[in-house]
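Researcher: I'd like a structural prediction for the single chain below. Treat it as a standalone chain; there are no partners to consider.
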Amino acid sequence: MKKKRPERPDGKKEQSRKGDRPGSGGKPGRRDAKSGGRDGKPGRRDSKPGGRDDRPGRRDDRSGKRGGKPSSRDDRGRNKRDGGDREERSKSRTYSAKAKKSKSGPTSPNRTSQEPYLKNEIRINKYIAHAGFCSRREADEYIEAGKVKVNGKVADQLGMKVKKDDDVEVDGQRVSLEPFVYILLNKGKDTISTTDDEKDRNTVLDAVEDATGYRVYPVGRLDRNTMGLLILTNDGDLAHRLMHPSFEVKKTYEVTASRNLTEEEVERLRSGVELEDGPVKPARVRHSLNDPKTIEITVFEGRNHLIRRMIAHLGADVKKLIRTRYAGLNDKDIRVGRWRYLKQKEINDLRKLTKLDTLDFNKEDG
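Model: Treating it as a single chain, here is the predicted structure.
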């Protein structure tokens, strides 16, 4: 049978102490029954009011929480929160996510409306260029060749103007003004830089057209096995100027050759080499710090297979070719095979570079 503890004078039960337990030799405990102090000295907690025996329990009956503050837990121990607060927090998170998503940036199309052009008559070549079909100069060539129709009739004047409701066809294809869209693609290997391919090979449009829904065109070309940056847009004027040699758009390539290239060979490239279609002098050539087979070449020209022919001039082959920079843009934030929309500042920087007016972007469209 469990032995009952003796009661204290104040009516409370006496706590057991080591000295009172059987087998302790009958020695008094370190804290006596009267004061709880050591060897008759008053204990630190009982010498002042509000000691351990006087303070309220850790959780009182009303609140269940120390200090009398309301508890966030109910009698069953579950977390009890106000449903309205939870709903407000949920709404706040939703609105915050929408706000981030709606901001103009690389993940949303920075489009500019062509509504001002639709309000008035504009020249037919400008209409075709702004529809993204080709440049104005090329549009004039289509008109001279009799391949442009307006409302079913062949356009016979270069300076003729069209209206918003006119039906314009170029080489049998109907064109219309759409918001300008600008995309930067990090092209992968085995991808063709054309709008379509008769051999049904992967094209650059396969990477972006289904995802965006916009009809865009590549600015220039990269060889099938050349990787790197490529702009796609329906801004015909910008595309034409970026490709034109008179604007000297800078392009940087990382070239890995089939063998180590000596410093003398790199110096030959710096000084310029004579190719079958004329001389070429790069803006910059330098060795890679990590690989003696790899060099970095920066040029302003865009001749076909230019970099490969320069390396072949040294008696070597190109094993890997990547365009890492184009017109001030770089590939640091785009993985191979991925793409993003250009930012507003990037778009206007390209237009400034090619002597075009900057655009005013409609945030609701972008």
